[in-house]
Amino acid sequence: MTAESLDLYRSAGLAEVDPEIASLIERELERQRGTIELIASESFSWPGVLEALGSTAANKYASGYPGKRHYPGCEIADEIEQLAIDRAKTLFGAEHANVQPYAGTTANEAVYLACLEPGDTILSLPFAQGGHPTHGDESNLSGKLYNTVSYGVRRDNFLIDYDQVRTLALEHRPRLIICGGSAYPRIVEVERFREIADEVGALLMCDMAHFAGLVAAGLHPNPVPHCDFVTSTTHKTLAGPRGGFVLCRAEHARALDEAVFPVLQGGPLLDTIAAKATCFEIAGSEAFAGYQRRVRANADRLAAELAGRDLDILSGGTDSHMLLVDLRSTEWTGADAEKRLHEVGVAVNEIAIPHDERPADETSGLRLGSPAVTMRGFDQEDMAEVAAIIVGALRADADLNSLHARSAALCARRPLYPGFRGYCSFLAG
Ligand SMILES: Cc1ncc(COP(=O)(O)O)c(C=O)c1O
Q: Which terminal CB of the chain, N or C, has fewer other CB atoms within 10 Å?
């Protein structure tokens, strides 16, 4: 490398230094702008959050915790992390917060390391019925280290079978009961889980990754008062940076912090922690509560419009930002329907329907969510048009080109990040 090129790298921005990556990022933004994004675990982050993510805070090594770092020069890192911790605690009314987990997965693993021994029993909802692989699935580390017992949803209404949770808890005496998941559209009745946990002397964890934004806005009961641990991501309904955090009772604070660092992770991502702080600040505002109310209204309207056009909605509707379409009465598998919808500019993901008789690689469901489209301004009328596009695409004689044009027209009417090129410019000052 010549001295000249080093000067270039020191002073130039991404477009000049790496036009290939710059152009891929620009193309990714165009893809996001041109797609009706209904993947329930996605949203579009606030510009302020994206700016914090693309900041020089990323340069600092700050292993440890505020006031107890392994490197000098962490005074400002301490202030950033403390602000994120304090805001998380205030937002959710928690006694303790750890904002360092790199992801929802590590947030969950940290809780297990804090309170379980290998071989201990976990009682959780399996992935095939709406749980998450990190809740003890054999494909995940949690399923390899711990003994998993699964409760399920009822066959008649697809709601959690709380009687079964209690029966299994009494039989297996789990050390930890886990509630929350990635494909459960209804309210998680955490108080009922608490009663069962107390009856058998188990700890209780709620993974609110999907509905944390609704909790912040007061639209889903807050699990924090009832749980020993609450885990979450910041990038789903909270519309923050990609990452995780854990809230817990004060008595578990020390074990949790040690589990996150040094047991599970290395140095924290300070830029992400700064972005989490910004996300928590926004999530406490009345404007955010208004956004979440629109997320809920749009999910309800989408469910009603799809049901009105003869698609089965699992459990008959939703209490949250997500809904599950049951394709068993159609000729579609989840995988084929996902592909077909993608061809008309609608992004959803296939999902297993609980108690499905079809083989696991031929799912019978679709999971749809409203946070991302609501973020770009879709209203209930737009959701009616989205439902019409979806139902049209699943007809045997669908005119895919005209449906795609309708999706594009909807996206054009609700611009995403107008004027932005996809990455923050360091050089702009
Ligand atoms: C309920 C739940 N927990 C944890 C995770 C894991 O989050 P991450 O992808 O950040 O590891 C997810 C992600 O899909 C999730 O839905």
A: C
